[in-house]
Amino acid sequence: MAAAVRGALWGCVLLCVSGIVPKPRNARINSVNFRSVLLWDPPGVHKGNLSYTVQAKSIFPKQNFNNVKTNLNVTECDVSSLSVYGAYMLRVRVEVEDEHSDWAVVRFKPMADTVIGPPSVNVKSESGTLHVDFTGPAADREHDKWSLKQYYGSWNYRILYWKKGSNEKVIHIDTKHNSEILSQLEPWTTYCIQVQGVIPEWNKTGELSQELCEQTTHNGVTPVWIVVTVLLGSMLAVMISVPVCFFSFWCLYRFTKDVFCPSYILPQHLKEFLSKPPSSSQFFSPVPEEEHHIHDWLTVISEEPKSQSDETVEEASETTEHHQDSEQEVSDSEIVPPLERD
């Protein structure tokens, strides 16, 4: 403050004594993403209406000064039209009617002096990881909106992340790509992220992006106890379902076989009896008792081997024949008397 006051008083003395116009003060360059503006402060003491003239020349290759702007009424001048690959010397002076001040000179190299702005960042939480996408920054020039990544020979993005509200060390990752997946994070934890551009060739570090915080979800790793439970449940279900299916199939098979292919066989004499066509007398004569027995046999017959049925029928036939022979002998003895002996 004291220095500024002394400078203003000294300028006032010079102006009053010799009529010299003081030069602009604090000339400087403000350049962000190649949008470059020459700034300065007006002289401390002046008379009349002031105007400014800005000139520039290239250092490599060496050239003469050329006017950039004249008759400026403001204390700034946009010099973004200069090539970003050059090195320049800029100067500005004050003009009052026919008088002018000395030049205030500033050196400017856009590639080295411009400030790298923050990139645009998007964070997405998915399966216990954080997907970070970033783009830019882009050159802020009148006819040029290319990404700054295309101007520099080397370009990296630096990702800084940390747990929100913790005092743990900030972790940073450098990548050449426009996206990165942050893994090995704790599930259901909020992490904060910032991204900046880094240019190793120029030893430049860009501005940090806005802080973004996002919570992780489940990490997608199935706990061991769930795996074991599912495995045991599957084995138990297989052990139960296989016997049940087999038993059901067997019962269905037996039922189908009994319906369409019965195992019992009728005796031969019943087959012959049933195969004979009924006579007319049978419709009018009473049913013999033997036929009642035959019908009873048909109703109560069960699954019986063929050999046992045949043996039973043969034994019944032999008993009947033997009984008939005995009756025949008794009848013959009654009718024919024995011969008397002489």
Brief synopsis:
Residues 301-342 are annotated as: Disordered. By secondary structure, the chain is of the alpha+beta class.
Topology diagram in text:
Layout: H1 2-17, E1 25-32, E2 35-41, E3 51-58, E4 66-72, E5 76-78, E6 88-96, E7 99-100, E8 104-108, H2 110-113, E9 120-126, E10 129-135, E11 156-163, E12 171-175, E13 179-182, E14 190-199, E15 204-205, E16 212-215, H3 224-260, H4 268-275, H5 281-284, H6 289-300, H7 306-335
Antiparallel strand pairs: 1-2, 2-5, 3-4, 3-6, 6-7, 6-8, 9-10, 10-13, 11-12, 11-14, 14-15, 14-16
Transmembrane segments: 224-253
Keywords: Blood coagulation, Disulfide bond, Glycoprotein, Hemostasis, Lipoprotein, Membrane, Palmitate, Signal, Transmembrane, Transmembrane helix
Subunit structure: Interacts with HSPE; the interaction, inhibited by heparin, promotes the generation of activated factor X and activates coagulation in the presence of activated factor VII.
Q: Can you characterise this structure?
A:
The chain has 342 residues and is α+β, with helices and mostly antiparallel strands. Among the domains are: 2-113, Immunoglobulins (Immunoglobulin-like), CATH 2.60.40.10; 120-215, Immunoglobulins (Immunoglobulin-like). The chain is 32% helix and 28% strand. The protein has helices at residues 2-17, 110-113, 224-260, 268-275, 281-284, 289-300, 306-335; strands at 25-32, 35-41, 51-58, 66-72, 76-78, 88-96, 99-100, 104-108, 120-126, 129-135, 156-163, 171-175, 179-182, 190-199, 204-205, 212-215. Strands 3, 4, 6, 7 and 8 form a five-stranded antiparallel beta sheet that branches. Strands 11, 12, 14, 15 and 16 form a five-stranded antiparallel beta sheet that branches. It is rod-shaped, with a radius of gyration of 59 Å. Keywords: Blood coagulation, Disulfide bond, Glycoprotein, Hemostasis, Lipoprotein, Membrane, Palmitate, Signal, Transmembrane, Transmembrane helix. It is found in: Membrane.
